Amino acid sequence: MSSSRRIRTARPLSRAAAVAGLATVALLGVATAASAHVTVNPRTAEQGTYTKVAFRVPNERDDAGTTKLRVDLPLDHPVASVSVRPLPGWTAKVEKKKLPTPVKVGDSELTEAVATITWSGGRIDPGQFQEFDVSMGPLPTDTDRMMFKAQQTYSGGEVVRWDQDPAGGQEPEHPAPVLTLTPKGAPATQPAAAKGPTVMAHDSETASDGTARLLGGAGLALGLIGLALGGFGLSRGRSRS
């Protein structure tokens, strides 16, 4: 093959590789950003029971650290007992509020309940995440979910509010963490696809919520690579003719 033929065939290959590489980076970046939400784990629990949940907080910024997290507990479905696991470097502040209407919990009447938990004093650096553990119960029996509105504060002063209801339709930009409540004895599965991915609620859920989305983005990127190489093959065939 002549040197001119080599040059003509090498250029389409380099273009295809460049296009495919850029597509891969772009798609993986989108998948990673889309998965970086504040979530509650596990995603399901039985009504009327005590459970431990972890509020998982990833840092979405490259130039700032997360320095504070506030979580609001739903007072329309209050919980009588709430306790926080100590986390080295962080201070937890628990605030209670008087309920508009007393709520019957077992044999007692609940007149106030924990309304907010605020963690501060620590730092989640770029590329890292942290989990904040809370034990609570008994969980409400008159609703099928609890939505925890959250506020994530960065070292630069930015506050991101995770307070949008993710129920039904397309996932909002800043969905609030939601704990799905199932009747006692019911299979502990995730809600329907409209409310999030279906995952069994057990300890293995500590895997990143963004893994599936990341793999999906990688699959799309590989598809684009295939198209780019196909175009190269066609261009090479034309140059030979």
UniProtKB/TrEMBL annotation:
Q: Where is this region: Disordered?
A: 163-194
Q: Which domain of life is it from?
A: Bacteria
The protein's UniProt keywords, in alphabetical order, are:
Membrane, Signal, Transmembrane, Transmembrane helix
Using the record's annotation, list all stretches that form the YncI copper-binding domain.
37-181
Among its keywords, does the record have Transmembrane? yes
- From the UniProt annotation, give the residues forming the signal peptide: 1-36
Q: Which Pfam families match?
A: DUF1775
The membrane spanning regions, by residue number, are: 214-234
Question: Does the entry feature the keyword Transmembrane helix, yes or no?
Answer: yes
Q: What is this protein called?
A: YcnI family protein
